[in-house]
Design brief:
203 residues, alpha/beta, five-stranded mixed beta sheet, 8 helices, 13% strand
Length: 203
């Protein structure tokens, strides 16, 4: 199995291809070899990303079948099922890298800011459960001078939400903490730009 650094390099290289509008031969060939993955797969990275249809991880990182273990949920939030999914992949496949992938103009973060501006009484409880996961990361920013600059507030809120989700994964699971301490796992943050297609990695 490759190292976290090597996995990150593969993701960076793949994103550069995506931005350039090209695909690797390896990715294209894998699509024609579905039978090779019936018996199993060995994803080199775990991506916890947003469900937004404009941010499909396999395309954004130009990866093929069997390369990525992808968990998608609105607002790239971390609830017990997402933690469990990461634990499952890290334990079963020994994938060395987890990337929490948020994106610009995130609708779930926008919905959270709207809820802070004007609390609603008619929102679905299920939607509110997502908003309430994002709220603790966003609310402190909402109460600063950023409140007067909506664009900057949204940008800062999106990143705060990404970092909060990353922190939750790093410290909300005994299993993941142990893997990190043993040097077997790295969990990092990243943001995809809808405007450019570029993924910016943090940490």
């Amino acid at each position: 199995m490759i190292t976290a650094e090597q996995a990150l390099t593969r993701l960076r290289d793949g994103n550069q291809r995506f931005v350039a509008g090209v695909r690797s031969i390896d990715t294209l060939v894998k699509q024609t070899r579905k039978a090779d993955f019936i018996e199993g797969h060995a994803p080199f990275a775990i991506i916890l990303g947003c469900s937004d249809s404009r941010v499909p991880a396999e395309l954004v990182f130009d990866q093929g079948l069997g390369d990525l273990f992808v968990i998608r949920v609105a607002g790239n939030i971390v609830a017990p099922s997402q933690v469990g999914s990461v634990e499952f992949a890290a334990g079963l496949f020994a994938s060395p890298l987890v990337v929490v992938l948020g994106h610009t103009l995130c609708g779930a973060v926008m919905a959270t800011l709207d809820e802070l501006k004007q609390p609603s009484s008619d929102k679905s409880l299920n939607v509110l459960s997502i908003v309430n996961r994002i709220r603790p990361a966003v609310e402190p920013l909402f109460e600063t001078e950023l409140h007067d600059t909506p664009e900057k507030l949204l940008t800062a809120s999106i990143r705060a939400n990404i970092f909060a989700a990353t922190n939750h994964l790093r410290h909300g699971s005994q299993m993941l903490e142990q893997l990190i301490q043993q040097g077997k796992l790295s969990i990092i943050s990243a943001e995809y730009s809808l405007e450019t297609g570029v993924v910016e990695f943090f940490d």
